[in-house]
Design brief:
The protein is an alpha+beta fold. The chain has one domain (34-196): Glutaredoxin. The chain has 4 helices and 11 strands, in the order E-E-E-E-E-H-E-H-E-H-E-E-E-H-E. It has helices at 69-86, 106-120, 134-138, 165-177, and strands at 2-3, 12-17, 20-25, 43-45, 59-64, 91-97, 126-130, 143-144, 146-150, 156-161, 193-196. It has a 7-stranded mixed β-sheet. Helix 1 (69-86) links the parallel strand 5 (59-64) and strand 6. The two termini are 24 Å apart.
Amino acid sequence: MTARPGPRRPGRAVVATRLGLVRRTLDGMHGPDDGEAPWLDDWVHGPALPPPASWGRPGLALLFNLACAGCVSRAVPWLKRASVAAGSRATLFAVHTAYGHPVLARDAVAPQVERFTRSFARLPCAVALDVNGDFAEQHGAEGTPHWLIWNERGELERSIYGSQANALTRLGYLLEAWGVPLDGSGDAAGGGRESSVD
């Protein structure tokens, strides 16, 4: 797991809201008027997904980075199994983020992420890019891998940091509650931290 070292840029404050975390900048820039963090707009694999409020079902996002060993070895394979098992019962997707990692130009990152998701991981779900790490930061990520969980109303309900067994077991229980059987794939050994967004 890769934790983020200290603040990234001066002039930003993170304000907790009832529905999640929204980054407010001191120079007057901020998220939409409804208080929700801006949605992803750079999809490199699979169909672009609309914001969670339009899904009508629960959702799970994996925030990962290719330089994160826990992401590549545990979190991404777990997401792949869970995506297949979930089918249309839940929306699962991945976001490659620079949060907690060096920020690279999109032209340097996108081809690697596309090749990884298509040829190596063969992910059956959509993958977006968070090139500068803002999406992860706005949603309160602690590092990578980090999991974001939305309820069927599109409200960010919870987040879990980590890819070891404790984190994956909690994610497995969550999917079981959504009616998604994982056949024991969520019960490896280890730990992770869960935090409530409310």
